[in-house]
């Protein structure tokens, strides 16, 4: 390994069962319950860990969390439909192509965590745009 790599992201949720229903529907995969308050979904080589903190340890969230989880998907149109059907808190009305070439859409999970779904063959990983 030549340097650090991301292997797990914590997604704070207020209700683990609602989170599991949403993400399982979006990913088309049931994931794996690790503990009563923790459920893992493997996304490529990275685990998206939905974690429900005990009430006494929850902190108020900002109105719009600046941390966005970006997910590469094989079929952005199919994913768009699955996300809409899964009941996000908020979602874009359409898939758009960004000026750097990515085809994507944004949505918030039921707890307000921002997500962006990007068509895999349009991923921008750095370098000149255009």
Defining traits:
single chain, 130 residues, alpha+beta, 2,3-Dihydroxybiphenyl 1,2-Dioxygenase, domain 1, five-stranded mixed sheet, four-stranded mixed sheet, 18% helix
Can you put this structure into words, describing what you see?
- The chain is of the alpha+beta class.
- The chain has a single domain (8-54, 65-122), classed as 2,3-Dihydroxybiphenyl 1,2-Dioxygenase, domain 1 (Roll).
- The protein has helices at residues 16-27, 76-86, and strands spanning 8-13, 32-35, 38-43, 46-52, 69-73, 90-91, 96-97, 103-108, 114-119.
- The strands form two sheets. Strands 5, 6, 7, 8 and 9 form a five-stranded mixed sheet that branches. Strands 1-4-3-2 form a four-stranded mixed sheet, with helices on one face.
- A hairpin with a 5-residue loop joins strand 8 and strand 9.
- It is globular and about 50 Å long.
């Amino acid at each position: 390994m030549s340097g650090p790599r991301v292997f797990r992201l914590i997604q704070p949720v207020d209700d683990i069962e609602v989170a599991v229903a949403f993400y399982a529907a979006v990913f088309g995969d049931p994931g794996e319950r690790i503990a009563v308050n923790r459920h893992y979904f493997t996304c490529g080589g990275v685990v998206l860990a939905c974690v429900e903190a005990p009430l006494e340890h929850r902190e108020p969230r900002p109105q719009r969390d600046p941390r966005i989880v970006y997910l590469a998907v094989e079929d952005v149109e199919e994913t768009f439909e699955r996300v809409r059907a899964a009941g996000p808190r908020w979602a874009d009305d359409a898939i758009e192509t960004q000026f750097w070439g990515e085809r994507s859409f944004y949505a918030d999970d039921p707890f307000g965590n921002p997500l962006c779904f990007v068509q895999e063959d349009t991923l921008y990983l750095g370098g000149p745009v255009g």
